Amino acid sequence: MLKDVNSFRQRTGRTLYEKSIFYKVSCVLLFIMVFINVTFPKAGIKLGGIPLTVGNVFLMLTIMMWFFYVIWKRCFVFSTAEKYVILGCIYWLIRFMFTMVGGRVGLSDWVGFFVPLVIYPFTFIVMNYFITEQKQIDFIIRMLLWGTVIVFVFGFLQAAFGIEKFSIPGLTVNYTDYISSTNWYAEKYNGVQEGVTYSKTVSTYQNGNLLGVNILLFCPMIYESIENKTWRNIYMLVFILFCILTGSKTCWVGIFIYLFIKGIVIVNRKWADGRKVQFACLVIAMIPVVAAIFLGMFPQIMERFKDSFTFKNINDLSGRSQSMNELINYFIVKTEWILTGPYGLTAYWGSSYEMAYFCILMLGGIAGLIAFLGPIMFILIKYTGKHVKESRILKGITHGVIVYIIIAFVEGALWLPPTAINLWMVLALGYKMSLFMEENRK
Fold first, then answer.
1. Which residues pair with 46 in a beta bridge?
2. What integer pLDDT is reported at residue 13 of this predicted model?
3. SS3 readout for 404-418
4. Exposure b/e, 323-360, CB count within 10 A at least 16 = b
5. pTM for this structure?
6. Is 33 in contact with 59 (CB distance < 8 Å)?
7. Given the DSSP bridges, would you call strands 50-53 and 44-47 parallel, antiparallel or unpaired?
8. What is the distance between the alpha carbons of residues 380 and 397, in angstroms, rounded to a whole number?
9. Per-residue CA distances from 400 to 9, 61, 198, 204, 327 (Å)
10. Res. 308: pLDDT tops 80
């Protein structure tokens, strides 16, 4: 920790650098990148089936600015957390080089895995580098607050009047997808019932599951950042109702997990007035009642809600358990591939595209799982989670990341932008806040 704080001091002492045009331009690019990837993540087009989003463009520009400065100034000072993130990227870079040499899969097949595992983690690096003051974090979180308000408004309008009536080509929906079909939203696995044309609410994310996973990741942080208690409670209510409206089973499970975590914190907190605990328990108990009334306004969602939590559906994992079991059986038979994964190197059976951890095992084996989860758990335990009692925002960040880690077992949406970007963005904010707190103690 002391070593990282010393590294942090070296960076925060760059007064001339922080006043330079280069730094100011880099910060503007960073802020735009963060806002776009939370608010309008699908803005852009597709080239050869590969999404070229505005958020990705600004991320690449920010990474280039960071890279050029590091090379120009020969500033190769990295904290322990940054080293772990870079090592994880290096592992995946090498692994995908073997995939390319293996020749069993084409570029269009593996590039969708390469970018989230090799490129997007640099979101953490560049944010940690360009953020030098606490007020920058406060500005980003405030910006994200208004970004989520836009997402909520679009979502509720789509639920009330139809997705096609509240979609802006090239901004709220990928332009190439929009012109390819009049029912583009129905072709993105957004149906809530087989044979029914009603779609999940997608807002600006183009996919209900993707939307649900992302708001579960960063909304807890935004909720905890709101100082006014009344507005904070209103935000929580809208957040919960919006999660229900997504129609995503994964999002429903995620919001239950989040409320359970918050419930444990509330009950275990040492309050002098027991009435606060009683009130908190009453609010939690009323949530299913409010949800039932809300769902009554959307019968298709209500029907899906009733059918989602049967033993058959839970055991089936939304149709994913069969391919998962096949992949597990493959590793039992072909144990030699458990370390590095078979993808692109040999024939295999089973697949788990949505289930993040099993997909990572397929791509890079146990070593790949360590390369992905290792830096995340290190940042979460060593920094962000260490200060949850001292900062409500850090508590929200910790809650959001923990919920994501759990639901990623079934649906991580890791391979669809902007999930991986937002994951590393949230981790970077938590990590940087922890360093600021350590610095203030000196």
1. 51
2. 47
3. HHHHCCCCCCCCCCC
4. bbeebeebbeeeeebeebbbbbbeebebbbebbbbbbb
5. 0.86
6. yes
7. antiparallel
8. 9
9. 28, 27, 29, 20, 29
10. no
Chain mean position to CA 99: 26
Q: Which amino acid is at 103?
A: G
Residue 321 pLDDT > 80: no
- Mean pLDDT of all residues belonging to the chain: 82
Encoded tokens for 417: 């932008």
Tell me the C-alpha distance between 435 and 432, whole Å.
5
Asked if 307 contacts 299 with a C-beta cutoff of 8 angstroms, the reply is no
Q: What is the mean pLDDT of residues 244-270?
A: 76
pLDDT tens per residue across span 366-387 = 999 999 999 999 999 988 878 8
Q: Give the type of residue at 18.
A: E
Asked if omega into 418 is within 30° of 0 (cis), the reply is: yes
Question: Within a 10 A sphere around the Cβ of 92, how many other Cβ atoms?
Answer: 25
Alpha helices by DSSP H, 202-310: 208-225, 229-245, 249-268, 274-296, 299-308
Q: Which two tokens stand for residue 439?
A: 């610095």
Alpha carbon distance 189, 192 (integer Å): 9
DSSP string, 66-83: HHHHHHHHT-----HHHH
For 183, list phi and psi in degrees, rounded to 5: -110, 45
Domain that holds residue 37: 2-440
> How far is it, in rounded angstroms, from Cα 330 to Cα 342?
10
Reference 124, options 439, 438, 421, 434; nearest CA is 421
Q: State the total domains in the chain.
A: 1
Q: Which of 171-180, 188-197, 334-343, 348-357 has the lowest mean pLDDT?
A: 188-197
